[in-house]
């Protein structure tokens, strides 16, 4: 894979970027996939938000030398590439769908630990260093005369967030801080609105930061907690909703960031259809046991799987059942429940 640095010539009147001579790799297509970036020598994974399954795409982009950590990634809707920041440098990295990459020097961009990033619909990248009071903006619309130049920064209040995502519904940025507070940012002036504290789905037991944030076309937000890898969903966050639901378990890491095309939907990946049948699984999240109940006299069968698809428990029951699960490790599991000709899946979370 070839890497190049776009040299910049500064004149007394303006900053002009030298044209790139290397042919860029192919762009991404706007699809349901999410991308996760992790590690001190940052690598890239494809992440299925619905199941939490991750597949390694590239082990590292900068395999040697200083400043191997990349962060503040976002999906640029104007060129369909993924862009991020090379830590403690004035460089952006552009990643193609064949995972080749290019480095660009951006004049006047601070050589700081910018760890929060995403794009608006106009191809402007919004960058932030957690806990500081300035939002930096870079014009990355290839059709703009200001391409690869920094726009005037936007002041804001310090916020302890580690990623944010643009909503395609209202054009605002959203982040969740380490106290599970949901914050809306106005990208035009940096004004913050505290929507409330996220609750539900076990999010209150999160001990780490939410280092990866994603949005879908309906304005649903997905946040991944670093320590556990647990992924939570906050539906239609633009309405002010702060109720979270547990969605899946992904890989955990101390350094974490995410990007995806926000105008794509996120398929659920799991059918939960049981026509004419009412099923209850509680409590969820659980600690020691779960209870199941069916609204039918037919015999039911439950199978418990881990997220790798290994069968952990199988049992037939009539109407109701309690399953002791104290021995399980914390994390997400899947139940397949069958009664007669009907079958459904349920996601459960062990705390």
Low-confidence stretches: 1-21, 269-273
Helix segment count?
A: 0
Strand content: over 45%
Number of strands: 30
Reading the helices and strands in chain order gives EEEEEEEEEEEEEEEEEEEEEEEEEEEEEE
What does this structure look like?
There is one protein chain. The chain is 0% helix and 45% strand. The protein has 351 residues and is mostly beta strands. The strands form eight sheets. It has a five-stranded mixed beta sheet, with no helix packed on it. The radius of gyration is 22 Å and the shape is elongated. The model is unreliable at 1-21 and 269-273 (pLDDT under 50).
Write the layout of secondary structure elements.
Layout: E1 5-6, E2 8-10, E3 15-17, E4 34-38, E5 43-47, E6 54-58, E7 70-75, E8 82-86, E9 91-95, E10 101-105, E11 116-119, E12 124-128, E13 134-139, E14 149-155, E15 165-166, E16 173-176, E17 181-185, E18 192-197, E19 210-215, E20 221-225, E21 230-234, E22 244-249, E23 256-259, E24 279-282, E25 289-294, E26 299-306, E27 311-318, E28 320-324, E29 331-339, E30 342-350
Parallel strand pairs: 1-10
Antiparallel strand pairs: 2-3, 4-5, 4-23, 5-6, 7-8, 8-9, 9-10, 11-12, 12-13, 13-14, 15-16, 16-17, 17-18, 19-20, 20-21, 21-22, 24-25, 25-28, 26-27, 26-29, 29-30
